[in-house]
User: What shape does this take?
Amino acid sequence: MNRRHFLYLVIALAVLGGAGFALFWQDIAAYRASGAKIGAKLLPGLTIADVAEIRIQSPKHQATLVRKEKNWVVQERGGYPASFQEISDLMIKLVELKVTQSEQVGASLLPRIELADPGKGEGGGTLIEFRDGAGKVLAGLVLGKKVLKKDPLNPLPAAKDGVPAGRYVRIVGAKDTVAVVSDPLGKAEAEPGKWLNKDFFKAERIRTLAAGPEGAGPQWKIARAEEWGQWKFAVGGELNPSAAVAATNRLGSLSFDDVALDSAKEAGGKPFLLVAETFDNLVYTVKLVRKGKGDGHFISFTVKGEPPKGRVPEKGEKPEDKERRDKEFAEARKRLEERIAAEQALSKWTYVIGGRELEPLLRTRGDMEAPRRDRK
Assistant: This one.
């Protein structure tokens, strides 16, 4: 090799090295811009106050959470109120979440860790998009396969991984960049029912409770003269006190699974009615209709009446006690009025509720009677 050839070789190596160095720094810049640097925040540019809509899409479901003034609603459930707590918890977690591992993964390998776009073949993940009030996408990511670790309660060497410890995440717009975060994000689901505000009516301080098929009159009715008094059948027979307490307690603590938008198409069987009168002069009328397919019932309700405006003074009540008790009564009445208003707002919807949840309320007259060995 002569001197001229050697010089050409040195120049060529310098050009190739410079190009490689430029590509290296270009990759580093893209890597940093993606927010996928180890120890960096997963979504560094997202500001919670700018978010007006969250769209969560999986291969089978989609939930769209929309901010309406100060409240959030679930679009797929006809604008039913969403759980602000669940939404805020998710946003805060994603804004604060940091990358624990980052690597380049080709598009053909994404389905293996469930990071392909949902609805486009096998291996689809869960897409989460944050949008502003104008519909502009502020940030997006795809949640993939959960990272499992060994169960700490099973120290045997042969124990398999089984405890969720993190999750694969692909940031939308960051080409081929896959990150791992230390939170499995188990509540980031695309089922609309998971995001509903689960506040429900609570029939409390029940004085009478009647139950039976609609239009046929009650199968049974129980009553008590005082709030802490003993339950009895309104008409004859010996009542099982445990059954009465179970029924009235359940009516004051029901929880629903989902909101039904078109229950008439799925309903099957004759409606079953529950009518509860309370010591607060309220009347709850609850209608139950069995679902045509699967377990559970559709449930709807109304609440009517007005709480007492005044308190009946106790015999021999002292003036200082009267003032305190009057104040406590006024405060309790105000809280009750607010609760009634909230329940009446919820009464325009029909709900889906599990069958087991209603078992204490669907008992027959025979089920409510005291066992024969307990009868006098």
